[in-house]
Amino acid sequence: MTLYALISSLELGLVFGIMAIGVYLTFRVLNFPDLSVDGSLPLGAAVSSVAIIAGINPWMALIAAFLAGGLAGLVTAFLNVRFGIMSLLASIVTMTALYSINIRIMGRPNLALLGEETVFSQFEAICPAFLQGNLISLFLYSLIICLLGLCLYFFLATEVGLALRATGNNPQMARAMGISTGGMTLLGVSLSNALVAFAGALYSQSQGSADVGMGIGTIVAGLVSVIIGEAMVRKKGVAWALLGALVGSCLYRVVIGFALATGTGDSIFALKASDLNLITAVIVVLLLAGPKLQLAARRSSK
Amino acid sequence: MIEVKQAYKTFNRGTPDENPSIRGLSLKINDGDFVTVIGSNGAGKSTLMNLLSGSIQADSGSIHIAGQDVSTMPEYKRARFIGRVFQDPKVGSASDLSVAENLSLAMKRCGGRGLRLANRKAYHETFKEKLSHLDLGLEERLNDSIGLLSGGQRQAITLLMASMIEPHILLLDEHTAALDPKTADRVMRLTDQIIKEHKLTALMITHNMEQAVKYGNRLVMLHQGKVALDISGSERENLKEEDLLAQFSKLAKT
Ligand SMILES: Nc1ncnc2c1ncn2[C@@H]1O[C@H](COP(=O)(O)OP(=O)(O)OP(=O)(O)O)[C@@H](O)[C@H]1O
Ligand SMILES: [Mg+2]
């Protein structure tokens, strides 16, 4: 694996780390398995791209994507809270609807940002000279992530944030403590999808394109990152969990990058970029089945 | 004052599992009353508490708390009036949150949550002081996850949470049933002390006849979703365990 490939993997790890943090919010904090992120990632990309092409400032485009994602999450949560539709089902409905909506927004299945201003091009212009090429985006990602991570960390420590965590951990107790669990679900799922859409927007600005299919496998990648993060960072607490999701995301992308870099060739077993989802699925199974497999191995060796 | 008027609740209405649990129950609890509630399994005691707290909605009838009709008020809004300790020690606290975080949640039971720091250092003196009354050494474990504590320790903390901000009524559902005799006794005495100290209105379900006559100033017996017995005043003061057992066998025959 070349240094260049490593840096690209880290970049992916960071930008999708924002997405992983969103997935952490629903899966772990709220205990609300939410698949709509597969649709809100491309939603963010679509909104941001259309906004940029319309001449809107790329930073504002990111904010617009954030809000659009929040709205998508709100729909999923509303279906669950108001009509009692199971969270998985409600999120699949939203995800499916978003596929059509994303194409509507872009007017077609994909858009290219040829020569348009992005946050990267703007940042490059004001960047100190020693940062070049790849490092610029790496630096910008880190900056944005630190900012978002800190905001989220402080938010989760506030009274509302604590209410959110209590809702996911023990809804019955939360209600007895005067917390509107429905309201917290709306808030948490929105926030999660807003982060995911933001990640999608940022990614599309770095790639210079948006594609309706780019969201496939988002939820699985996010889950893998969260689970790897939990295995790596064993400490308890919100700060460690947020850091874990980031570390997990980076590690996951590096592993994928490494697999793709070494597994190339001409045979039919050589890996292609499109094998990524299969590799991811295998990693998920290994991670989840790992403890059981170890146990079985220990039993049979006795 | 709490007033339940002609409450009915049937679970699984219109299915083969149809089960009338509360059948025209009326009950008036005056401020400062400490009512012990007894009754056989399935008599509707927990269901009555769920109706009061809003965890379930009555099919008909009305519930007033502090002069306000709360019949259709959602549970989280009614929480402002109600402190509650559940039958199951795991239900009353959030296991992944720390002791201090759980207690911080209780500081805001009556609402007013905003973007201020939840688990404030300024609270910790109060928390430690209250925890030290439990005599369980929990004042040293503010930052431990509550899930690491035993059932009895959790139940004791839930009691503190329920009474942290003085509730209009304290609901206790067999809250010492899952505890070892010594801890049960300690939690029960602490309960009595808290109720007396703050002159709280309380409703305590128990299957322990000794507790039922020893504590409180009024006793209510439920049978088939209705009040079968309501004893207060001097009659209540002279009540013996044997009298209650006699009542149980009398009802069993009907
Ligand atoms: N959620 C529910 N769904 C269906 N039936 C229920 C439900 N909750 C209670 N019941 C039924 O209502 C009746 C009263 O139950 P409740 O839990 O109030 O009894 P209880 O007096 O608290 O009994 P115990 O002393 O065993 O705790 C029972 O027949 C029970 O089966
Ligand atoms: Mg009960």
**Low-confidence segments of chain A, ≥5 residues, pLDDT <50?**
none
Beta strand count of chain B: 10
Number of strands of chain A: 2
Which sheet architecture does the biggest sheet of chain B show?
A: 6 strands, mixed
According to CATH, what is the topology of the largest domain in chain B?
Rossmann fold
Strand portion of chain A: under 5%
Assigned CATH class of the largest domain in chain B: Alpha Beta
What's the story with the biggest beta sheet of chain A? 2 strands, antiparallel
Number of domains of chain A: 1
Spatial gap, N to C terminus of chain A: 40 Å
Tell the overall outline of chain A: globular
Structural class of chain B: alpha/beta
Which CATH architecture of chain A would you pick?
A: Orthogonal Bundle
Average of pLDDT of chain A? 92
Description:
- The complex is a heterodimer of chains A (302) and B (254).
- By secondary structure, chain A is mainly alpha-helical.
- Chain A has one domain: ABC transporter involved in vitamin B12 uptake, BtuC (Orthogonal Bundle), CATH 1.10.3470.
- Chain A is 77% helix and 2% strand.
- Chain A has twelve helices and two strands.
- A two-stranded antiparallel sheet of chain A has the order 1-2.
- The model of chain A has no long low-confidence stretch (mean pLDDT 92).
- Chain B is α/β, with parallel strands linked by helices and 254 residues long.
- Chain B has two domains: 1-78, 3-Layer(aba) Sandwich (Rossmann fold); 82-198, P-loop containing nucleotide triphosphate hydrolases (Rossmann fold, 3-Layer(aba) Sandwich), CATH 3.40.50.
- Helix content of chain B is 36%, strand content 24%.
- Chain B contains nine helices and ten strands.
- In chain B, the strands form two sheets. A six-stranded mixed sheet of chain B has the order 6-7-8-3-9-10, sandwiched between helices. In chain B, strands 2-1-4-5 form a four-stranded antiparallel sheet, covered by helices on one side.
- In chain B, helix 5 packs parallel to helix 6.
- Chain B is globular.
- The model of chain B has no long low-confidence stretch (mean pLDDT 94).
- The chains are: A mainly alpha (302), B alpha/beta (254).
- Chain A binds chain B through residues 155, 157-163, 165-166, 169-170, 172-181, 236, and chain B through 53, 55, 74-77, 79-80, 82, 84, 86, 91-97, 101, 104-106, 108-111, 113-119, 145, 161.
- The structure holds adenosine-5'-triphosphate (ATP) and magnesium ion (MG).
- Residues 11-12, 19, 21, 39, 41-47 of chain B line the site of adenosine-5'-triphosphate.
